[in-house]
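Reopening: structure tokens for the protoporphyrin IX containing FE complex, inputs below.
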Amino acid sequence: MGCAISGLSETADLGEKSNYHAGGGGEGGHLSQDQIDMIKESWKVIKDNITKVGIIVFVRLFETHPECKDVFFLFRDVKDLERLRTSRELRAHGLRVMSFIEKSVARLDQPERLEVLAVELGKSHYHYNAPPKYYSYVEAEFLNAVQPILKDRWTAELEEAWKTMFQYMTRLMKQGYEDEDRQNQATISPKERGDKRNAAL
Ligand code: HEM
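Re-run output (same inputs, fresh job):
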């Protein structure tokens, strides 16, 4: 069976992802049709719990990586993570992330459409000051959060499929982030660069 998702491997920067494994049917980290079907099937269950999963993912993200909280203007000063759990903003942001995952799942059969979407998202994350190293933390928390919801539907194969999908998605986001970074470095004048550097010191 051919790779359902392909064409990225030439530009992909997978070197640092030591936990990366090619999915069941594909080489080079592509999703096989079986993996796509598996993800879609499991999404039917996850989607009934998207608000809950969105909140769990971000509360746990802030617990394990408190530096991520600083990126969010609204949550930066909230010390009590329990309060965050009931925050309307956190709920809204969690839902945005989950809706993006939903769109991505729906587009797994049309990778070129998914690619545009994820690269654009990476570009906007450059402006949110949310760097790519944080995206893999989201992946880990998502996997932890959906496991108890899927119960015995959760298998090693399904985990591998979701990992492959996340790594595909976050690699595209990283690409968008880096493109935007280059673009901004190119358009900013040497004087402004100096000013920015001084401001950061
Ligand atoms: C797989 C990882 C992630 C996905 C899929 C994702 C998705 C999204 C989406 C769909 C939005 C809505 C706005 C837009 O479309 O531009 C958004 C906004 C935002 N994201 Fe992410 N995100 C991820 C990781 C992160 C991480 C790790 C951080 C910070 C540590 C972060 C910080 C933000 C901020 C500050 C905003 C703008 C405020 C808001 O919409 O609430 N994101 N993200």
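The CA atoms of residues 13 and 171 lie 7 Å apart. Confidence is low (pLDDT under 50) at residues 6-28, 196-201. Marking as resolved unless the reporter disagrees.
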